[in-house]
Amino acid sequence: MGKIRRLVLDVLKPLDPNIIELSRILSELPGVDAVNISIFEIDRKVENAKITVEGSDINYELVLRAIEDEGGTVHSIDEAVAGKIIIDDAQTPQDYLG
């Protein structure tokens, strides 16, 4: 089975832990090489975050558990990349329609 190399997650998280702490927690998981967290919306008690995880062999269940253990909820998996290398989306005509 192909190894998961990148996950992009839409996550609702509490204000605590902050994104620095959460990125450190996720980056320490086995198979994870890098984590990027961007905040898109802040409410009184929660933040809507885009979490990108890259690595050599990401275990989604461990990532999910770590997020949930810190009080977060994964709303959706917005991108998944698996295989021997990481590839980015190719531009198609649908990307220009709108």
Fold blueprint:
Elements: E1 4-14, H1 19-27, E2 32-42, E3 46-55, H2 60-69, E4 73-82, H3 93-96
Antiparallel strand pairs: 1-3, 1-4, 2-3
Structural account:
This protein has a 4-stranded antiparallel sheet, covered by helices on one side. 23% of the residues lie in helices and 43% in strands. With 98 residues, the chain is of the alpha+beta class. The radius of gyration is 14 Å and the shape is globular. The chain has one domain: Alpha-Beta Plaits (2-Layer Sandwich), CATH 3.30.70. The chain contains 3 helices and 4 strands. The model has no long low-confidence stretch (mean pLDDT 94).
CATH topology (fold) name:
Alpha-Beta Plaits
By DSSP, the count of extended strands is 4
SSE succession: EHEEHEH
Spatial order of strands in the largest sheet: 2-3-1-4
Structural class: alpha+beta
Helix content: 10-25%
- Radius of gyration using CA atoms only: 14 Å
